[in-house]
Design goal:
The protein has 17 helices and 17 strands. The protein has helices spanning 18-32, 108-126, 142-149, 177-182, 187-190, 207-214, 223-231, 239-244, 279-292, 314-326, 340-352, 367-376, 392-398, 409-414, 439-455, 457-469, 474-500; strands spanning 2-6, 36-42, 53-66, 69-80, 83-90, 132-136, 160-165, 173-174, 205-206, 217-220, 249-251, 301-308, 330-337, 359-363, 379-382, 402-406, 432-434. Helix 2 packs across helix 3 (142-149) and helix 10 (314-326) runs parallel beside helix 15. The structure holds adenosine-5'-diphosphate (ADP). Adenosine-5'-diphosphate binds at residues 17-19, 21, 305-307, 334-336, 365-367, 370, 389-392.
């Protein structure tokens, strides 16, 4: 099969969170299975150019229709760890991708509308006709819309689209200017509730909704979150749309790339280790303490790695810091703040705790430090208010770092409570789970984890190893995506056969 991924991130060259990991890991798995795979990305000024090999112009004069004219665009080609990537670079005063950041501008919806249009225009102009286009999140929600409404008439009618939703919270609600910009010139048609009209804002066009309505298949990134999206409020108003399209909606658990996240050969960490010999992990703990100036004492290190966002349960993250410090544990936080208030709050905390020998808060994005924390910490806390899949608990498991998580979304599918899980045998349990979104619940789980570390070290080590045995690589989920691509492709063939009859 010939598959093209269109996304706003791909690790390690563009990574703001899990989306980047998933586009990279899934693509590598697809390629390993001998399918042809290409990735189309924006050419941000701030991406990591040193991670791209042989970057060169692939298409110099692409004229992307935009409002009444065109935007002259170049497409670059380069390889990221063997994956062929195309980067879209528009030349206009809008400077869509020269903003020093990936997201967070007021005109994000316009930036990614342009990206979606340019990606399709590039496929059209270069004669590429993939079997499957795989789109990710609202940034690419307009791809299936334009494919069906415009490009299918231009010889791309056989291309099928899979749309993956990594986070329902961000849906990309835009005004009618996106219709003018892309020349989807039929306002009443697109402003229908059956198509793009936002379920709550009658003047808004919802790009994620467009992705759901127009794609051949839609999925979110874990089975439990797929259930939550339909039956609880975590789909942020899209529950009804998912209900209407339930026959083409499911959940596929993310994987992690086992080459990037491998304690036996991780180049970011000083000591390697495996399930058979955890001594390297202890040395990494010492290295982590040395790097962050923490004291060397008989205490576990509890870590948090992630975006500092309401979604990640920042209030409970904050509480875990003080709970651990009061209860004979150290705490390490690596967090990228997402809003001004949260940013200021954690900077204040960082100053307050600056002299603590048992705590370090690192604010910002640091891939290198993240690896060392996974390798050196004893536990990783994930107290999310909702979590479509979550990668940090899976990476933690791979590095023998016991997850302490709230039982939501993909965390339910991947972490099984040591003491209370009813569906897994004792030797299949791998962490601690709490359910209520409050401090006592968090404390009860942390207390059990820290207690086990102090009083039953051999039991704790057994739990670490049980977690390390889990296989959350792309092996299984990659196959699920391939099966899915085959299914929607064959549906196409059935349609053609029916038409021929
Ligand atoms: P998200 O909701 O942000 O996608 P995930 O748990 O799915 O959360 O994925 C988070 C990914 O981003 C993991 O690979 C994690 O290690 C990484 N990550 C998150 N925050 C940081 C940070 N501040 N520095 C380095 N890596 C980070």
């Amino acid at each position: 099969m010939y598959i093209v991924q269109i996304a706003s991130e791909c690790a390690p060259v563009i990574k703001a969170g899990g989306l980047g990991d998933v586009v990279y890991g899934l693509s590598r798995d697809i390629e390993r299975r001998n399918h042809t795979l290409e990735i189309i990305l924006p050419m941000y000024d701030c991406m990591k150019y040193d991670k791209i090999w042989n970057l060169h112009i692939a298409y110099e004069h692409l004229n992307v229709p935009w409002y009444g004219g065109t935007i002259h665009t170049s497409v670059y080609c380069g390889w990221v760890d063997g994956l062929q990537c195309f980067f879209i670079q528009p030349h206009s005063n809008d400077n869509f991708f020269n903003r020093g950041c990936y997201y967070g501008n007021n005109d994000d919806y316009m930036r990614f509308t342009f990206f979606s249009k340019a990606a399709l225009e590039f496929l059209l102009a270069s004669g590429k006709r993939p079997d499957i286009i795989h789109c990710h999140d609202w940034q690419t929600g307009l791809v299936p819309v334009m494919l069906f409404e415009q490009y299918s008439w231009l010889g791309m009618g056989d291309v099928r689209v899979c749309f993956t939703i990594h986070n329902f919270k961000h849906q990309g609600v835009a005004g009618k200017d996106i219709l003018w910009a892309t020349r989807l010139n039929n306002e009443p048609h697109f402003f229908s509730y059956d198509r793009l009209r936002d379920n709550f804002n009658p003047f808004g066009l919802n790009l994620m909704k467009g992705g759901i309505v127009y794609s051949n298949h839609v999925n979110t990134v874990s089975p439990h979150h797929a259930w939550e999206a339909r039956y609880t409020d975590v789909s942020y108003g899209l529950g009804h749309t998912l209900d209407v399209h339930q026959s083409k909606f499911n959940g596929i658990l993310n994987g992690i790339d086992y080459k990037t996240w491998n304690p036996e050969e991780d180049t970011h960490v000083p000591h390697h280790f495996s399930i058979d010999d955890l001594s390297g992990k202890l040395k990494n703990k010492k290295a982590l303490r040395d790097r962050l100036l923490l004291r060397d004492e008989k205490k576990p290190i509890v870590a948090f790695i992630g975006r500092l966002d309401q979604q990640k349960g920042v209030e409970l993250v904050h509480h875990s810091i003080y709970y651990c410090l009061r209860n004979n544990a150290q705490f390490v936080l690596l967090g990228s703040p997402t809003g001004r208030e949260i940013n200021e709050h954690f900077w204040r905390e960082k100053h307050n705790l600056n002299d603590s020998p048992d705590c370090h808060l690192e604010l910002g994005f640091d891939e290198d430090l993240a690896h060392l924390i996974y390798a050196g910490a004893d536990m990783i806390v994930v107290p999310s208010s909702f979590e479509p899949c979550g990668l940090t608990q899976m990476i933690g498991l791979r590095y023998g770092t016991v997850p302490v998580v709230r039982g939501v979304g993909g965390l339910v599918d991947t972490v099984f409570d040591k003491d209370y899980d009813q569906f897994h045998e004792e030797e299949e349990r791998n962490g601690y789970v709490f359910y209520q979104n409050d401090r006592p619940a968090l404390e009860s789980a942390l207390e059990r984890a820290i207690g086990l570390w102090h009083h039953y070290p051999l039991e704790f080590q057994k739990l670490q190893k049980q977690g390390m045995k889990y296989d959350y690589s792309w092996k299984r989920s990659g196959q699920e995506y391939i099966d899915l691509y085959e299914t929607i492709r064959h549906k196409k063939e059935e349609v053609v056969e029916d038409e021929e009859k």
